[in-house]
Amino acid sequence: MYVKIEDLLFQYRNAKTPTIQNFSLNIEKGEVVSILGDSGSGKSTILRLIAGLEIPQKGSISINGQKMIDDKHFTPPEKRGIGMVFQDYCLFPHMTVANNIKFGLKKLNRKQKQERLEEMLTLVNLQDFKDRYPYELSGGQQQRVALARALAPAPSLLIFDEPFSNLDRSLQEKIREELRVIIKQTGITSILVTHDEADAKALADRIVYVKEGKISRTVTSFTLHTNNKKVLTFS
């Protein structure tokens, strides 16, 4: 199993009850999993635990056979090889699209950085926008830059925290389709946290419903053929 999460327990310092309890989840390589829940359900905390931004009181997390956290180990966030895309994109406003994407490529030489940049620009279809600044881009274009920046260092895992919350509803559907194509094209294992079931169904191979820090149910996608078109549904 590519991502293995076992028996997580986490409680914030001033909270009366745990935010996450008895949480276990296995994810296969290349799978896209959505963690779906209402505000306060603990879904974003799960991402923070995976990324190493919070430390659980109990439990373990492994990615690609490497232990990230257990009662004896803690791998810091910068060494986990995780790409993160947040709801506000966190682009550097003083940097061009090109420099935003190249920001995480410090270990590569100049030629390698340029080659990787061109690859990412092509992947997200922003070749003509590399010299623009974030404020000159639409919300959908900014999101694609954030995705390209997260993918550029070739992370072992990609995580999204409410990536469509800042987009108009009319734009969400288009961006969801583009994002799924890009993720599947790269084959990268991904976790999406959202409160919107439509987002989860559009992107995920599997939806994990979370309530009060626990998994309430899980549904898996399958493909139906309707009028010679593939339609992704869930069971």
Please tag this protein with its features.
30% strand; 7-stranded mixed β-sheet; alpha/beta; Rossmann fold; globular; 4-stranded antiparallel β-sheet; ABC_transporter-like_CS; 235 residues
Explained architecture:
The chain is an alpha/beta fold. It has one domain: Rossmann fold (3-Layer(aba) Sandwich), CATH 3.40.50. Helix content is 29%, strand content 30%. The protein has 6 helices and 11 strands. It has a 7-stranded mixed β-sheet with strand order 6-7-8-3-9-10-11, sandwiched between helices. The chain has a 4-stranded antiparallel β-sheet with strand order 2-1-4-5, covered by helices on one side. The protein is globular, with a radius of gyration of 18 Å. 36% of the residues are buried. The model is unreliable at 223-231 (pLDDT under 50). The complex is composed of two ATP-binding proteins (OpuCA), two transmembrane proteins (OpuCB and OpuCD) and a solute-binding protein (OpuCC). InterPro entries: AAA+_ATPase, ABC_SmlMolc_Importer, ABC_transporter-like_ATP-bd, ABC_transporter-like_CS, ABC_transpr_FbpC, P-loop_NTPase. It catalyses: a quaternary ammonium(out) + ATP + H2O = a quaternary ammonium(in) + ADP + phosphate + H(+). It comes from Sutcliffiella cohnii. This is Carnitine transport ATP-binding protein OpuCA.
